[in-house]
Amino acid sequence: MSAVKRASNHSTLSQKVFVRTSKAGNATKVVREQYLRDDIPCSSQGCQYCKNNLYVADATGKRQEPILETQPNKTTKRGPHYLVVDTNIVLDGIDLLESDKGFYDVIVPQIVLEEVRNRSLPIYARLRALTKNDDKRFYVFHNEYCKDTAVGRNKGESINDRNDRAIRKVCEFYTQHLGKDYNGTAPEVVLLSNDVNNRKLAKEEGITALGLKGYVSELVDPGQLIDMIPQRALEEEEGAKPKSGKSEALYPEYYPMSRLLGGIKNGTLFQGNLTISPYNVLEGSVSTKAYPKPLLILGRQSLNRAFSGDQVVVELLPKDKWKTPSTSVIESEDLAANEGGEESGDTVMSESERKLLADDALKAHKNEADAAERVQPTARVVGIIKRSWRYYVGHIAPGSIIDDVSRGPRSVLVALMDKTLPRVRIRTRQAAALQGRRIVVAVDSWPADSRHPEGHFCRDLGPIESKQAETEALLLEHDVEYRPFTKAVLDCLPAEGPDWKVPQDLVKEAAEKDPLVAKRRDLRHLNICSIDPPGCQDIDDALHARVLPNGNYELGVHIADVTHFVKPDTALDQEGASRGTSVYLVDKRIDMLPMLLGTNLCSINPYVERYAFSVLWEMTPDGKIVNTDFTKSIISSREAFSYAEAQARIDDPSKTDELTEGMRVLLKFSKQLKQGRIDAGALNLASPEVKVHIDSETSDPGEVEVKELLETNSLVEEFMLLANTSVAKKIYESFPQTAMLRRHGAPPATNFETLNDQLRTIKGMSISLESSKALADSLDKCIDPNEPFFNTLVRIVATRSMLAAEYFSSGSYAYPEFRHYGLASEIYTHFTSPIRRYADVVAHRQLAAAIGYEPLHQSHREKDHMESICKNINVRHRNAQFAGRASIEYFVGQALKNVTKEEDAIHEGYVIKVFNNGVVVLVPKYGLEALIHIDDLGDAETAVFNEKEYKLDISGKSIRVFDKVKVKVESYKDKQEKRKVKMVLL
């Protein structure tokens, strides 16, 4: 929210001098010219000078206005004042700055914005969002270009000291500037800084300076804000001295960055993302190109304070220390029971870990021949390149409040909902009040001498198990943006709102308003319909089929033309790109785009005219495509069917109207398309899909059922796949370096080692990985005549062994690597769901340019920009999937609470994993799996685990992978206070 008048008579020329060093060590003097201006406004509504002289119309002709209130910050005991923040305040206090309790009318010096961008892109994005928030009124003041505030660097002065001086200069300027021509009494200017020396110098210069704690204490209603200040920031503000003496390190120190980078370069160290096993929190793995199998990281000493998802550097251990993956289940609650007090012991190793490593050593000794085949290289973490830290949701662990009497801040441990992560220590004044509630925390650091990472309190979501708190928790846990759309985004929507209509006279109205509309093909005469899940409100696609005069068929897919409303590089477009995808929960939908577009103007609702992007094929009666045409269009859907309604209409012989006959033609050709894909090697994988029925009045979860798939499901799927493939070819042809595509890599053979060994050992079967066709054929042969579900079970396990599909920019890979392994397609993209996926929006823009409809925006021509888009939407797509699954798990757990009859709680399940201290069972009825601990299986003392045969014998029972079992399914809360499914073997 900055306004700079571009007038050459208001500027003077200055120079900045830099010394740039090349890789060869040569130094080059760089001189940059810089214009200093005297017309940069202060943006205070009370400043008469700026208001009358410095505000001009922007490019759209709209006059820019000041944003800082005349008498600001009425939420504090201090009089009206503006806040000027330094860099560390933003880095340490971004949560505070975003809160609604205080921190309004904030001046962000340009130098602070640039420093934040260099040090943390996520925080920079949040700061930029604040500058666009009309309620918070954050203003970026371009101090580096203002003649009165630009400062050079003094001889012997550090860059940090120079920047601090520049920020103080901004405070001085505002104080003097506002004192000249103000409407009333000018507000005070307050510098916010946690740097003791900076505050001292500011006070010597007559500037009011406060730290975070000092300012928060002045708020009329500080609420929980004091607890939101990181401990590091508190210590800096209070000028705390380093602790005397050196605490004994519990973890190894990380290697210096120079050694890490050197080791990666010469191949002695390896870099990758750490993944913690969901069944064993003491076992991690890092995949590298140097080894076919992931590197194992065993034990907390070797994990060395790394979180799951961190980008780490690891050092290989000697070969005599390489191991096989653990066969034990160790969850965070098991560790908590063995850890003892925070200060107990002089080692970080718990009893669980000692037992784990001892068992592994014994196992390796007993099964040396077998282990030699399954052994994996083992490593330890020696450095962190990039932390994956985010907001975490959890609850105060019972018994972790060290001092429940003192009124001051107390250290407590927060057990996180993600059981693969350690407990986080925070200091809070409201420990007792926060017990039994879901809270949000942020991690600040993890010193080598601390058993736990250290963080701070951010927010209270509400009571544990309340639907609102649990829903918000799962959205935060999966980094889903769910806040309402900002005013800037909503301002991009059509001014007519829901009254917007497609023009009736394409030529006349197009010439007056939008010349592009005249390029659209009028397809309103076609019998088009949509087929979707019941209750679908955001209808992306519709279809039609008709016989052509030459005896061939015209088949069409019509996709909502989102890009007519979402123009590149607007606030609406940026928000869609950031969110990446809509997120579907059991009881709600988190939209990628505002509802006016998603469920109204773009949605292909029946009986109304809509803009579309159509793909039309001419096919011979035997299914051969003789022509493909792409066009922007205007359509009118005749009907919106659910899958079941469409199936019933197709199957009803009394229905002979054109719309029904068209659907029968579509079904006929969809079967041919599907057979063609299968013949080419497309995989028919499986994952259990369930639906939770929600009471329309109470919103309580009711019956849970497995979704039934009909022929009409396949009908829609086949034509969407064909459209995506056709579009992919077209946009790659036009934009070979930046086309938005989607690939699915062939899975490494090592991913299927365990599954193949289980099939050979237990069933005498195997699956082939020579090609997708070989895999598909071998999966078809995995049949147990005595168990119809067995083939589906194998497909479910096989799906988990596959690599994830990903979006990519075509210039990032060679053409052979474009292949989508699962679909057996050489090239593929996503085009058919632009309402809910941003990748499709980009594909629409590229296709429009490819057919000459309109030029392609520069951002979709730049390889680096396209790669950053792909990176973000890959993460958002994965997070959306996990959030959807977590929502199902939560609501299934709630539904099970209402089961009163014991016979209704008993279901069939299938064993999919066997450990030496438990088994994992999948229940298809709920599409969920759960671990049954050894104590719930029988007498643990009688247990005998046979790793080679994937079998656990206990109390006279023998339990094996693939076994069909009867289980009692119950709902319970685990140590993370998450409502989960508990199974008891019957």
TrEMBL record:
CDD domains: PIN_Rrp44-like, S1_like
Keyword Nucleus recorded: yes
Ranges where the record places region Disordered: 328-349
SMART domains reported in the protein's UniProt record: PINc, RNB, S1
GO molecular function: 3'-5'-RNA exonuclease activity; endonuclease activity; RNA endonuclease activity; tRNA binding
UniProt record similarity statement: Belongs to the RNR ribonuclease family.
PROSITE patterns attached to this UniProt entry: RIBONUCLEASE_II (PS01175), S1 (PS50126)
Protein name: Ribosomal RNA-processing protein 44
InterPro entries named among the record's database cross-references: Dis3_CSD2, NA-bd_OB-fold, PIN-like_dom_sf, PIN_dom, RNase_II/R, RNase_II/R_CS, RNR_Ribonuclease, Rrp44_CSD1
Acidic residues biased stretches: 331-345
